[in-house]
Design brief:
0% strand; 184 residues; 3 domains; 8 helices; elongated
Length: 184
């Protein structure tokens, strides 16, 4: 294994800088020496080393100003999906600018209109997640309050019931449902 690795290191630069006929010759020699399958040998010789030749990361095309403008437009459009928002964006942007609700730079406006539906969905994902988590937290909190009220009322008219502070919100909701189904 060590000899194959040394062989790859020795041949890699020569293989990359060679033309098509020279690459075929180098590849034939490498396959004969290493015993690798031809396609695997090509992949090993073309592989990028960890020390260098790494592709630079993509620069973000849409900056914070574009994403914030998109959020405003999304809220104004009643939280449409990316596909529908993409179609509605030109008309909505024109109407909001005309009525003075939003004022965008020309560059931000062009980038906003150039966004694809998939990019719109990706850009709005953190906002949607925040909204869903807030909604879930509100539901759990309201369920816990309903249960506390129900437990206090139940303790008042049902002396055998002792409300426990260790009840989980789900158990509380189930208990409240059970009580309401028994009384009706």
């Amino acid at each position: 294994m060590k000899t194959n690795t040394e062989l790859i290191i020795a041949l890699r630069e020569r293989y990359r800088s060679a033309n098509k006929t020279e690459k075929a010759t180098i590849l034939d020699e490498f396959v004969a020496l290493s015993g690798y399958h031809r396609k695997h040998a090509i992949r090993r010789l073309k592989a990028v080393t960890k020390s260098g030749n790494m592709k630079p990361s993509k620069n973000k095309v849409y900056d914070i100003a574009v994403v914030e403008a998109l959020r405003v437009m999304w809220e104004a459009a009643d939280r449409l999906c990316g596909k529908r928002l993409k179609a509605a964006l030109p008309g909505l942007l024109y109407a909001m600018e005309r009525d003075g609700h939003i004022a965008l730079d020309l560059a931000v406006r062009e980038k906003l209109l150039a966004m694809s539906a998939a990019t719109i969905d990706r850009s709005l994902r953190p906002t949607r997640l925040h909204i869903e988590l807030t909604r879930l937290a509100f539901w759990l909190l309201s369920a816990a309050f309903c249960v506390m009220e129900t437990a206090a009322e139940t303790a008042a008219w049902y002396p055998a019931f002792e409300p426990s502070s260790r009840l989980s919100p789900l158990n509380c909701v189930l208990f409240a449902t059970l009580l309401t189904s028994e009384t009706s």
